Amino acid sequence: xxxxxxxxxxxxxxxxxxxxxxxxxxxxxxxxxxxxxxxxxxxxxxxxxxxxxxxxxxxxxxxxxxxxxxxxxxxxxxxxxxxxxxxxxxxxxxxxxxxxxxxxxxxxxxxxxxxxxxxxxxxxxxxxxxxxxxxxxxxxxxxxxxxxxxxxxxxxxxxxxxxxxxxxxxxxxxxxxxxxxxxxxxxxxxxxxxxxxxxxxxxxxxxxxxxxxxxxxx
Length: 218
Fold this sequence. Notes:
By secondary structure, the protein is an alpha/beta fold. Helix content is 47%, strand content 19%. The longest helix is centred in the middle third of the chain and has 26 residues, at 105-130. It is elongated.
């Protein structure tokens, strides 16, 4: 069937997660068409495939892909050249390949460790808030209650706090020197992109005024 006279409505999500290397239209978009045959075939159409190793895990740096709606339309046109396609969603979208993790003892240990960190971190935040963010006083009182003696100089609490703070900064900014810990954009990169968008929008808005409005520089 050529798809002549038929209209396909395509609504792409801006961010999608897939569990298999093959990315199909139904994984990243909502599709509607009066012809059920066209609808089923388009939904099952493969638009991208992540390159995977024999272990089934994605290679480093290849688990995130940005795809354009034009790429999707091009693949649909190959099988239905006469089909009218109406795109209602994002123009560019991100697909993240995350294989389903296997349940193991290591995963349970990691989850339990994370819960412990969240519990004590929340408790520490509440205590410092009550003490008007007096971290030193909180450490002194906690040390005295646990050991029964007043602290004399630097205690393991201060040492652990400094080490944890350093690791927290490293993981938050996703950088060790020039190397990134993960492939995700760093907070600085995200803020720079937002700044670039704001600058571009300012240029566009200023060019559209054409002297009809009072500028901030006047």
